[in-house]
Amino acid sequence: MGIWSMFRSWAQGAYADVSPTPPDDFHNQLWQTQATVYEEMWDYFNGDVFDETLPNRQDDLKYPLGVNLFATACANHRATLFGEYNDDVLTFRARSKNVDSPQVETALDRIWRASSRNSLLLEAGLLGMILGGVVFRVIWHPMRKRVFVRVVPADAFYPIWDPDDYHNVLECFIAYQTNGSTARRRFHVDVSDDQAVLVVQEHWTPHFIDVTVDGEEAYWDAGHRFPMSGPNPFKDPQTGRGIIPVEYFPRDRAGSFYGIPLGRDALKMQNNYNSAMADLGDAVLEATHQYKFLRGRARGTKGLERLTRNGLNDLGVPAPGQKEPDVFTVAGGEIPPGTIDWMDGLLVLARAAMHTPPVAYGQDEGSQRSALTLAFRMWPLSSAVRATRGFWADSFKALNRKALIVAANKGGYNVQERMCEYDTLPVWAPMLPRDREGEVNEVVTRRAQGLISTYTAIEKLEDRETEWVEEEVARIEDDAKKETELEIKIAKAGQQARQAQQNKPKPSSVPAS
Q: What is the pTM of this model?
């Protein structure tokens, strides 16, 4: 887990309370508006909204059941985004193949492995769904002498972007909280361990980097030989200009730099669903309980013990002029017909607003369905995630280029400057579980007809790394070679046996007497 999320209080949204201190000419109003969106999304994802109480009734929760549709939808989208992966959540390949492409792919693989690829991407996927976007940054650590990638939650990121190219961040702040003991050991600043909250602020431009902890300069080492602030060392080899090695990944986008959170159009429906569920619970409570009444007793309920279910109960004497005392019950109200169906419809609508159909939650109407039918039923989710994959593919291309530039600048992973211009593509796993039998039949048929190679057939069926596929193909070729050699030996042995039989002298015939 990156340092950006290590000290984040997931229950309280610590990042949302931190703001940088930029110059007055920065567009703080836009950042504040976006911060309000982030705070609302965190409140719903963490369930803080369920702690709200009714006006003037501090003991009564506004949403007592606390059904969190938003959190489960975010998890569903994250799972579908990365799909049915095997070993690695995501890998990358060069768009075109030439002499340098294997080295580019190897360098990126090493960078992402050093970055704890799987946990990093899974966390980023969830953050992207919650906040509408997530930020990746490339880091060069001078003490470790390596390049790696880290995640920055979008609510800790304050960018100035190029309106003609969203991948080009012109300037940015990254601001988040830490504590005194961590600040002393991580940033080597002179603060007390007892300080509970300190603000780390990074200010990035193409020309310089400024990193402070509560205004004090931060260092990579305890000896203060390697300051984190200074000239920006990362230069684009093509232009010679400094780059800011950060990249914003939107979940979806419409006319703005910032992505659209998954819950934007569904949170009000979730509120209505929780309110209606609470009302339904009250109605069920009323309908399943009877009201008891006592009449005609001279002393009322005074001195009357609780009536027992078994045994005798003495109600005493009647009131003057009244009949014998008795106890009777009145049934509660009835739940209107169709209430449950209406609740189910409200649930479906709320989930549909987050592109998650019933089948995404395992609801298939209790019948057998073909894989194609289920795929069509998953279309609202798969189409939304396909759009996210499109945005992320472009962002990964830009991020990987920045990672290669940092590696080339610092001499990491044998990256040469010419390799920084390579386009890379993410290799996504299938979104949905596949019809394995149908896929095997298709591959076997195409291979038998000579329409695909052995390499491609294995690659399609195994979803393994390139090295593994190459090794498997080599083993298959080796087996085929051995089988051919064995067949040749058997054929030669048979030929020799037949030749020996032909050369064997025939027995002489003895004339009959």
A: 0.79
